[in-house]
Design goal:
Belongs to the tectonic family. Pfam families: DUF1619_N (PF25752), TCTN_DUF1619 (PF07773). Keywords: Cilium biogenesis/degradation, Glycoprotein, Signal. Part of the tectonic-like complex (also named B9 complex). InterPro entries: TCTN1-3, TCTN1-3_dom, TCTN1-3_N. With 658 residues, the chain is mainly beta. The chain has 5 domains: 94 residues; 70 residues, no CATH class; 131 residues, no CATH class; 169 residues, no CATH class; 70 residues, no CATH class. Helix content is 8%, strand content 32%. A 7-stranded mixed sheet has the order 18-23-24-26-25-27-21, with helices on one face. Strands 10, 13, 14, 15, 16 and 17 form a 6-stranded mixed sheet that branches.
Length: 658
Amino acid sequence: MSGPRVNSFFLGNSSGVNFSIILSSLDEETGKLQLANCNGIKRAGDWHLTVTPGMNASKVTVSLTRTLQLCLPNGTDCCTTPLCVVETLQVLACRDSVMLAHLLIQAEIYANSSFTGNVSENATVIPNQAFQPLGSCPCDLTAAACDVRCCCDPECTPDLKQLFNKSCFTGVFGGDVNPPFDQLCSSQSMEYIPDWFPFLCVQSSLNNTPFLGYFYHGSISTPGVPPFKIALQTSPGRIFTGYRQGDPIMTEENEYFTIPQQSVAGQCVENAPVAYLQNFDVKCLTNLASYKEGLPRDVRINTGAGDFIQQNVIYRTITDTGKFITENENLHAAEVLCQNVTFAEHYMFLWKDKNIEQINVTVFLGSLCDGETLAQRFTVTFQSLKSTNATELFENPGYQVGKPVKAANMNASDTSGSLNIWQPAGRGLCTLASSTPVLFGLDSFSGCVLEVGINEDCSLLRGNVTEKLNSLIQATHVGKRSNSSYSDLNDWVEIIRLDPFNSDTVVSSGNLRGICRDIPANLNIRIIYADVGAVQGIPWQEVLAVQISYSTIIWQFQCGLICENSTSFFPITASVQFIEVPAQPPVPMTRFQINYTEFDCNRNDVCWPELFYPLTRFYTGEPYSQCLAKGLLLAFLVLLAAMMSNPWFSKLWNSSLV
């Protein structure tokens, strides 16, 4: 054993069994352990034996009762050497003087390296680090031992220092805690000393070194996981002055009001804050084992004006669970465990200006059994109290983040169009993938895969991929605003299409099978928008232009050892990028304001760093002494002109002439 405690087990019935411990020693003549008998007790020297009886086994614990601390000067009851305990123990189990079991323990225990003893009253006075260094030898890290390459370590003897005398630590870490600084007149550390250095250098002792100014008064803070809280405002008056679009909704406990939502990766986040004036409709998969309840229904919400309102909750029961149960394992009815859980939650926030006036919550409950997968649904809808139409949530005609982009097909009799991206399902095949509308302000990236054979015709493949990508854009125009009228063409912007290469102009790849050039594998949708104003503090955002382009690649069939009669997966993707630009073009900068790179005289028309270039040593047109003399003369003339332009100089000159 190497620690102060060891455990073992005695198997069998321990009733009537006497356990004892014996501190054994070697026989000087034979060199063997002395024979043990059953007359021992449960304590031997510094060792103690405890037995915890059980049904068919008893736990036997041998523990050391002495301290394992190294001795301090004049210390007692401690370890004098690092190897503190070297002893041999025997644990016996006897019944009626008959030995039933025998356990031999060899103990080699080292002293603890940490100090837990009493601190002497003669405490070391630590100097103030703001005025003098804390230690004269920072590289002395090991007590009572010589640190290699630390020449200031007092434990290092001259013989040891000879081993690393030429490799000592330098600088402050090596003991030079007061190095000469560059401002000293006697300092020669600077490679280039300017001519004015003797006029501005410092005559000071090393005890007044500027390195002491690097001392930092730190503070210790307790680490912890920050909750969804914000700091309370201590100023009098109302806590909030109203919500703005995108602000998290707060509760009475000054925490975020959270509802499960989908992340960018598609997974559900349980404690996701609800943002003001941002609707969402999500579904989260769960089962009976991982089901968790959300926030309590009695949580009061901060209206934004400093007061709080209660949620109006209505409970309903789901009778048809087929719309929510997506997977059902066939289990025997006798072993199925069911529980009443929440199937859906619908939140309706009634708002006015920057405040929340009312919250209506509809909760749908149902029975979820073990082995079933539930698709929970959570919806949040914001409705203005000034709106007469329940479907029109905002009076702001501009787009709101998270709302679908409005599209139209002006070349068809039915002008309603669509601007979509893929929503893959199952294996991710394009034949099984559905589509979802492009949401304003949210950059997206989605895709699906096509099954392609090695003998695929390049022209057919190129046409098939182009058709799949074009199926996402069933529109010729995009609405500038969310309420753009189909009858007014000025409310729409035409989609700029940069079509892929025509199949007639594609360079042939020869007779190579499984290789096709210029395949449009990615559809790029770029939407340029701007903030053109605000309605009740909510930004009014309009679409200015829409561009659609294609990224082409060289497709090559991927296969293993055998390529015949096999198919490969070809991924095609669609990306959406929203680019914000100023509503009005900025005023162009003059050539004096343009600054490509700081102090870049090669690109800027005006180079301020070269204003005093003739006075520097880099100027070689004239001797440096002449440049310096002319510079001093110029400075004198400027100073003289400034003095003569002062009114008091005129009075002094006139008085001298009188």
